[in-house]
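[step 3/7] fold_predict: job queued, chain A
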Amino acid sequence: MAYPPAPQHIVKVKYKTWAPILFTVAGALWLVVALMNVLVGTFSIGIITGPLFVLIGILTFSQPLASYELATGALHMHSPLGFKTATYGAPKGERLWFDGTNLMRVMADGRQKKVNLKAGRPEDVAQVVQAVAGAQQQPQQ
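[step 4/7] structure written:
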């Protein structure tokens, strides 16, 4: 008898496919042009930024754009380099809310701000929206 898969405690939102490909290709082209400039004898800033864009492009294939913790209701936004850049939700005294079209942050003073997940894969964003909408349906304590 097979057991069902363990429930997921963290929902990760990965980048859309075009973002890593764009960063990797642009960085590679920038690096090639910079190397040709170096061979001619001129300095180009692409010798520094080209490998940086290639690195960011490769990392965005594996690093998530955001992660949502089901237990705490926290949404963490991540940098392509791997560290957390922002946290939304309960840890900051906010509440995440889905208004039917947008994922919103409702702050302690009542102001609302939209959470930008446009660079995320739609199927991953839909999982986060479903989790937030499910948490909305539960009675507040």
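[step 5/7] annotate
The chain has a mean pLDDT of 88.
The first strand starts at residue 10 and ends at 14.
exit 0
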